């Protein structure tokens, strides 16, 4: 295994972490539009908190996909063709959610409710199926000698993958609630915190179920006992921190902790798979490995230069955007966007 | 139906639909940037009104363009996994770079542009829009670098049955890339100019249009942009065609419906119909000399026909059918070039008849109708242009290296493809219908909508929506 192969394995994990950390709260806010608010004004208010940033946050996914294609074409090909219908659901969710932002502010008042629903449902579908995909992936999928996956319903949808999907939804929703608490004023801010306080109780149960299923359904504890255990414990610790912080109304700490939970989860998945990138349930001979599914050293080198040159710039202007929009949203920005 | 046929159908449907909105948003984005720049320079409110009004239509097209674009990146892996494995070492890099260099910039600065009207100086605000326009053009550059490799592979070697990159700069120096980039950007500029011209014309046709000056001024800017773009698109297209004669002779011969070698000088076929199974032309009307001029810039030189090229390709690459769908290519090319020329004429005459001395156009309804109907022509020209480029590469995905049949995902079932085709079709229909109804609604509201609002709403609009800082 070359240093560049390892670097890109880590970078892909970083890109997915960035995606869930940032887009995670967009999904949460999207779900909250139909579940947390009491009136149209509050819906507009919370949508305004993510208005300037959600599209940029989604680019983390596009970059992760592009980087996967460029640095690990065999992983990309196996994963994307194998998870055909799951990815179709994710795409459908992203599409309806994406247009909902623009459509809900332009349609006549009586149609607005429809696009509020598509926003919420789309925001729920995407994290659910990402959870299903990543968890069934680490359980191992029927991948043959040519790297082609021919899975059946039970391979995709089973107890652990559904728990994974629900956990993703719950984490996104909590992350969104924490973001709303951080970025708004008024009654919605308190309501978001109250919801979060309640849901953290449920998340503990979910985390225990997740850890137990991981022990029985994957080889993570056998392959990487120490890192798996440490990262699972870290997820619990971060949840406790977030839970305590939400009680103490330390909004920044809560938000950072819930975001970091996603990072720990992605790290758990990637370290557990290492040095594999796809696990074959047919035979370990057919596992896709970091060493045999990456691009050529030349391509990886070019990609590394590009990333080193431009990633700091990208992070700088993204950071600046969050600074520009650092203030809390008091009420819906009437005509602000027109 | 075979998975290859269903996969090709999906690629055609999703890319054509996506590409309705790409030149739409790049082009109208540019015009909006120009309008806002005029506002910053002249400080006239009418330009601010234009920026916001057309900006909203730009945002609608941008939103649909973004969401349909994600499908494209996923589609290669989902439907064309064998292709992805074969070419990923080369093809993935421009896609990743596109996201890193262009998409982040585009989305971040668009977010800033939409939400900082009251927060930053007008100069900084218009800079955001120019950065968005620059980023959109950059994204076109990178995705076309990927496409150009498929059309004309450069800087690679074949290793263990896979294409491996040997030179990244060769990917960017690919002459095909710069023809395509010039052509695509120029066409996007025409699209933006013509859409704003055409929609303004429809508004001016209304009996009770409250603010005709607004649309006259918008139309003027639209026509100027369209004229500039039209000249550029014809130049780029001409250069691209001359390269095609050498690089992809089969595509060129097919767009000319030429089965037998032409005479010298070669005559150009205005209209024709081919018997594709019999490999011969059924009928056609020819214009002498013109094809030689189009191909070589001089009134002499013959052009090879498809039958001779097919023989040559069989010798070079083995026994298979190398004839692309001739009638589709022939007519697509004529629709594209015909509408391209029409848009040049329309923008030229449009400017002539709206000049200060004689504003005949505003009094002649039929002229306004022509401009209005032109709104739809860039969509047809853009689509047919890509049909020529992509179908003309038949039977290859990567020219000379990898065929369409080899490219399909072997593990994807007919059922999965039928489901995904249906899902996309339904989503596209719903989104398209909503999009059109919202553009119409925006036009009905008109540019003075904000001024007509109730006093109370106006007061609410002035209140700063932001409270104290969150990260304190």
Automatic annotation (TrEMBL), chain A:
The chain crosses the membrane at residues 6-25, 83-103, 115-136, 156-177, 198-216, 228-247, 259-282, 302-325. Coiled coil: none annotated. One of its GO terms (molecular function) is electron transfer activity. Pfam families: Cyt_bd_oxida_II. It is found in: Cell membrane. Belongs to the cytochrome ubiquinol oxidase subunit 2 family. This is Cytochrome d ubiquinol oxidase, subunit II. It comes from Liquorilactobacillus mali KCTC 3596 = DSM 20444.
TrEMBL record, chain B:
It is a multi-pass membrane protein. Its main location: membrane. InterPro entries: Cyt-d_ubiquinol_oxidase_su_1. It comes from the Bacteria. The chain crosses the membrane at residues 16-41, 53-71, 91-115, 127-145, 181-205, 217-237, 331-354, 366-388, 422-440. It holds the Pfam family Cyt_bd_oxida_I. It is found in: Cell membrane. GO terms for biological process: aerobic electron transport chain. Keywords: Cell membrane, Electron transport, Heme, Iron, Membrane, Metal-binding, Transmembrane, Transmembrane helix, Transport. The keyword Magnesium does not apply. GO terms for cellular component: cytochrome complex; plasma membrane. One of its GO terms (molecular function) is heme binding. Belongs to the cytochrome ubiquinol oxidase subunit 1 family. This is Cytochrome bd-type oxidase subunit I. It comes from Liquorilactobacillus mali KCTC 3596 = DSM 20444.
